[in-house]
C-alpha cells in the first residue's frame, strides 16, 4: 500500500485555488475504495477545510507547512510546533527593524489566533480581505504586536516586494540559524507580492509526514508526494517518490522523480488513480 500526500495551491487545486469538481469526485471515489491520501499545505487547517469541505479524509492534514497536524473536520490539532518565546520576540524585532509589518499566528488557551497591526500595501490588504470574506475566526487587529506574544507564535508571514523580503530572510537565517525554517515564495494569486514565512525548525512538511506515519502505523508504507514550490522540496527529497506538476518551479522539478501535467488538468488525480490501481 502507498500513502499519497499532496500540496494544495499550484498542485492539487485549480488556478482559482479551488478543488475542481472532477478532482473532488475522483478523490471521493478512490477514498471510498480505501486510498490512503492526505494533504500537506502552507494553509491553516481552517482554510483547508473551507476548500476540501466534506472530502472524506481518514487521516489528519499537515497544515501551516508542518506547524500543525490537524483533524480537518473539527480543526483540532494533534500536534503543534510553536517557537520558543525568546526566538519569536527576536524574529519580530528583526522584521520590525526592517520597517516591515508581519501577520503572526499564535496558539494558546484561546486557540489559534492571527494578529496584524496595520496594512502597508495592496497585497497585505488582500490578505486581510480574503480572511474577512472567509470569516476566518482567527483574525485579530492589534495595537501592538509585541503584546500578542504571550501565547506561543507558530508562524510569521510578511507580504512585500521580493528585494526587502530577501534581505530580511538573509538576516533571520543568519541570526536564528537552524532554529527556524524560512520560505520566500511567490503568491500564486497575486504575482509580484511574495510571502516570507517563518516557522519553528520542526515545522516542515517532510517532518509532518514522518510524524503522521509514525502515529498511524504507516512507517512501512511507500510515500508518494506531489508539489510545486520551494516549501515542497524537503518532502520531495524525503519521499520514496516525489512528483512535480509541470507548472512547478525549476528547483522542485530538479528534485522530482517524475514530472506530470499541470495542476489545472486533474494531473495529480490522474496519476494517483493510475498508480494506485496498478
Provide a short characterization of the protein structure:
The protein contains ten helices and 14 strands.
Mind explaining what this structure looks like?
With 278 residues, the protein is of the alpha/beta class. It has two domains: 2-80 and 204-277, Rossmann fold (3-Layer(aba) Sandwich), CATH 3.40.50; 85-200, Hypothetical Protein, Haloacid Dehalogenase-like Hydrolase, Chain: A, domain 2 (2-Layer Sandwich), CATH 3.30.1240. Helix content is 36%, strand content 24%. The protein has ten helices and 14 strands. It has helices spanning 8-12, 21-32, 45-52, 85-97, 122-133, 162-176, 205-215, 233-238, 250-255, 267-277; strands at 2-6, 36-39, 61-63, 68-71, 76-80, 103-108, 111-116, 139-141, 153-159, 180-185, 195-200, 222-227, 241-244, 258-259. It has a six-stranded mixed β-sheet, sandwiched between helices. Strands 2-1-12-13-14 form a five-stranded parallel β-sheet. The protein is globular. The mean pLDDT is 97.
Write the layout of secondary structure elements.
Elements: E1 2-6, H1 8-12, H2 21-32, E2 36-39, H3 45-52, E3 61-63, E4 68-71, E5 76-80, H4 85-97, E6 103-108, E7 111-116, H5 122-133, E8 139-141, E9 153-159, H6 162-176, E10 180-185, E11 195-200, H7 205-215, E12 222-227, H8 233-238, E13 241-244, H9 250-255, E14 258-259, H10 267-277
Parallel strand pairs: 1-2, 1-12, 7-8, 12-13, 13-14
Antiparallel strand pairs: 3-4, 4-5, 6-7, 6-9, 9-11, 10-11
